[in-house]
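Subgroup meeting minutes
Present: P.N., E.W., G.H.
Scribe: E.W.

1. P.N. recapped why we're keeping a running log of single-chain structure predictions: easier to compare across weeks, and new members can see raw inputs and outputs side by side.
2. G.H. added today's entry (130 aa).
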Amino acid sequence: MNLFTHAIIGAVFFMLLFVTGNTMLQSIRERVPEFAVLKTSGFTDNAVLWLVIAEAMLLCLMAALAGLVLAKVAIPITRPAIEDYVTLLQTGWADTLRGFGLALLVAVISSLYPAWQVRRLSIVAALSRR
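Output recorded in log:
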């Protein structure tokens, strides 16, 4: 049972990486000229790279905050209805921090490729696409 649980969690984590990465790639593709303008106005390649990573971190950490706060609020409220499973559904502060850590990991991993693409973006090629 433990193996199946870890396999399902691994599949969910992989899908989170895939969906977040796809969202970031689509976001970057739609804003290529804007990144070219940022580079033209003096932003370095590394500064634009960190902007993309920060955007992914904001996206993932806000979603994690909403989900973890919902779990912290919903579990005590539903506790009387699920008394038989109370030991299975306890969220301590260590679990909350682990959730934020995983959200941060998802953000960084899913934003590396889009950030790398923006970093090596040619200003002339990006502005000529319009």
